[in-house]
Design brief:
The structure holds two protein chains of two kinds. Chain A is an alpha/beta fold. Chain A has 22 helices and ten strands. Among the domains of chain A are: 247 residues, 3-Layer(aba) Sandwich (Rossmann fold), CATH 3.40.50.10420; 67 residues, no CATH class. Chain B is α/β, with parallel strands linked by helices. Chain B is built from 13 helices and eight strands. Chain B has a four-stranded parallel beta sheet, with helices on both faces. The chains are: A alpha/beta, B alpha/beta. Chains A and B meet through α1, α2, α15, α17 and α18 of A and α1, α2, α3, α4 and α8 of B.
Chain lengths: 456, 250
Amino acid sequence: MMNHAAKAGKFLADLKRADWHDQTLWIMRKKRDKAVSCVPEWEELRDKASQIKEHVLSNLDAYLLQFEVEAVKNGAQVHWAFDSESFNQKVYSIINGYQAQKVVKSKSMLTEECGLNPYLEDKGIEVVDTDLGERIIQLRGEPPSHMVVPAIHLKKEEIGELFHSKLGTEKGLADAQKLTSAARQHLRKKFLSAEVAITGVNFSVAETGTVVVCTNEGNADMGVQIAPVQIHCMGIEKILPRVEDLGIFIQMLARNATGQPITTYTSHYQKPKPGGAMHIIIVDNGRSEHLGNSKYRDSLKCIRCGACLNTCPVYRRSGGHSYNYVISGPVGSILSPIYSINKYKDLPFASSLCGSCTNVCPVKINIHQQLYSWRQEIFEKRLIPTSKRYGFKFAGKILASSRYYNFFGKNIRWALKHLPRKVLYHRINIWGRCRELPPAPDKTFNQWYQENYKRN
Amino acid sequence: MNIKSQIGLFIPCYIDQFYPQVGVATLELLMKLGLDVGYPLKQTCCGQPLANSGSEEDARDIYLNFVNNFSEFDYIVSPSGSCVYHVREHYDILEQTEEVRRVRQNSYELCEYIIDILGIEDLRIDFPHKVGIHHSCHGLRGLKLGASSELVTAHYSKVHRLLEKAKGIELITLDREDECCGFGGTFSIFEPDISVKMGKERILDHERNGAEVITATDMSCLMHLEGIARRNKNKVKFNHIAEILNQSRL
């Protein structure tokens, strides 16, 4: 398996596409800047949002139980799933209980995380993702490259090709409006025949037992209103205490994600429709364990706005698929090692630690500090190559003693000055592949100081 | 304990070895400001290159060497926002003795020290050039030397404040005012393709907007950018902020 650096190198090999990707996401960052600057109290909202999330994480058991009681009172059926396997089974058994075959699903990172689609497809269920971006990557058999705009890595022309082969549109179609229209007609049929609608959950409210889903396409509503059975899948961390808390998050989510004041649709689902059934599945899948880890529990505050991806200079230039985890970008790099530090050990290093992610985060997750902490842990667990490990140990000894430091410094400067260019810029010099080495002055500052300034 | 009423000058390892002129400029400037500056000869490094790579445990002795060299000074001043940020933020793994606490509290980046502690803004500088300021991330977002573009706060920049009064200077504006240059310590080696790409784009932004000189509070960013610029024969020049501030006629 290629690591992030290798995949990033491959992504950058197509320079034009890489620049286009960077600029597209930078435009989202600029739109976000403009939208949040219209809210003078933005930084206070971030404080409040962070405090509410921290409060929820500290009282999660109570709020989840309260939510269940309220939701059941409303007529919903509440299920609990400990891990992805039990979640997938639960979804299937609900679908199977209605002898249903056709499912439409709106955007949900949780179902991506649990691998719901392949599980259901194996059982012979047709699952159609109804968010346009999700449908595109589903037709391509790809994971999302961005948690908010899952097909951001694709150009119109590529989508035209895809729709030509999968939906029978005319060849060479690259008009966004026509492509969208083709997708709408295709999806309309799926909506009309769907027996079950699955949605993700952006927020859920403990005091009312409501789940809230934010979309721009109205596809969650279309699914839920037509199919007799609705299933809402939420991670345990999605809960908010009161309806009034929602106001803070709804103000922030779309502004920070895409620069819109609010998503086109903010749907509150409270009870089943007449004659229909409403199921809510509350999923843990590693979150409780995560919650017990004081260093990293903050990352459970994430509301999946994607702003840390849009601002990240590394994400923009390496693309979401270089992360090899369902949630890409900075927040994915602190979430993924919780599931497997060995498998995702490269991700905390896929950052220059510039800290821009932490500054855009609406719930103030200290993302860059968690990246730093993960690096320490990966090192301690000896998950980096032995040569690197001993290299750093050796460097630690040298840099702790001025005698060794001066000795090595002198030799490095001698080498920089006297070795032939061919040797200095041998391929093992990674710095030198695309950069000149620094100059090699005759004297260090220390020497200069001793000659010019040293008193007594 | 005999506490000297003095400034301890910390010259980071790579400046000491490769860019001594930046150390000289820093020292000369502090002396022009009438300060009593001491330079402990046994200083080496702040330990950041190891710690950012995950091996902070191997950096402990480096941290202790730093503390031993600087604990007696009233202020520790350094021409590097990144190293100062590291000392303040990450020396938390040491036992927090009186010395360690003093060192962490009293470490200042050069511009920060001049503005916040000395209260000086006009250094009477002559620098008739078009200058692009590269906001090094650890200085900007770590030490808060300025308001970073992500935050909804009043705009300020300590580096701007020191430079904007310079005679003849023209400070250019960038398309992306505070994007990272891609150095990131060992990130520059572990993720070389992204690192170089980020650097190239920073240089282009400065050149496109007319910079003759790119300056920064961190020579490490400039070492990376200059390394790329020299390879690609970009015309723009690089000066550490201390070299510009030392044009002071005080």
